[in-house]
Amino acid sequence: MKTSTRCILGFVLFLFLLHPGRAVAATDLPVSESVLNTVFQGKNGSFVLMDCDSDAMIEHTPASAAQLYGPCSTFKIWNGLIGLETGIVSDVNAPFYKWDGKVRSIKAWNKDLTFKEAFQASCVPAFQALARTIGPSRMQLWLDKLDYGDKDISAGIDVFWLPRPDRKTLLISAREQAECIRRLVLGDVPFSAASVQGIKEAMRIKETGKGTLYAKTGSGGDGKGNYNLGWFVGFVESNGKRYAFACNVTGNGMMSSNARTMVETILQQAGML
Length: 273
Description:
Elements: H1 3-18, H2 33-39, E1 44-51, E2 57-60, H3 62-65, E3 68-69, H4 76-85, E4 95-97, E5 113-114, H5 115-120, H6 124-134, H7 136-146, E6 172-173, H8 174-186, H9 193-203, E7 204-207, E8 211-221, E9 227-238, E10 241-250, H10 256-269
Antiparallel strand pairs: 1-2, 1-10, 3-6, 4-5, 7-8, 8-9, 9-10
Helix pairs in contact: 4-6, 4-9
């Protein structure tokens, strides 16, 4: 065997030993590339699925999965966790948001809400108030601990996760989102078990005979009322296994409902939901 060939094989073996989970074939996952291609036909975006226990992963497509976007309301997962961990939020079923009397276009926001209700209604003013209470210093500290995206909160403590063309918001990829969720599922995050259990309770949105879905939606726009970015991020428990996922879809009119429909279609066709 030539020296150069031995060097290449040795380097490949080194990578496998360094990141053994990443060498697991995507075929070990219940989701196939053909299903992903069908679901994404004619749409721009990405989908990442990680087996939390074996670390097997499949992506549609790697280049898109590495593209950076503002996390939109998917950041409520981490905003909420920080609120729970710091004691600002006492319990997910406790009173959380006191309506200010301002009528907003989303009817569910126009009343007092518990944390879980505010989370599932994706009540932006409620979580903006939470971020202001956490404050820039504590928020930055927690994002650094989490290594969440580019950790940039310079746009402002109550808007840094909400993308707009006129400001540089925090940026994160679908691959990074899925990895953060994988660590959350495994408990490999700087939060107590009680805080993690609380946010999981808030994230639970669907249960079937095949699996349970935990997730958060997020939508972004151009600042003029037009949506062009949709996120759906979370995990699914199915057949005794746990899978973290992140999906985004971009383009005129695209929003979180599109991403959610796509993910649920993928999981249903895979027999996971």
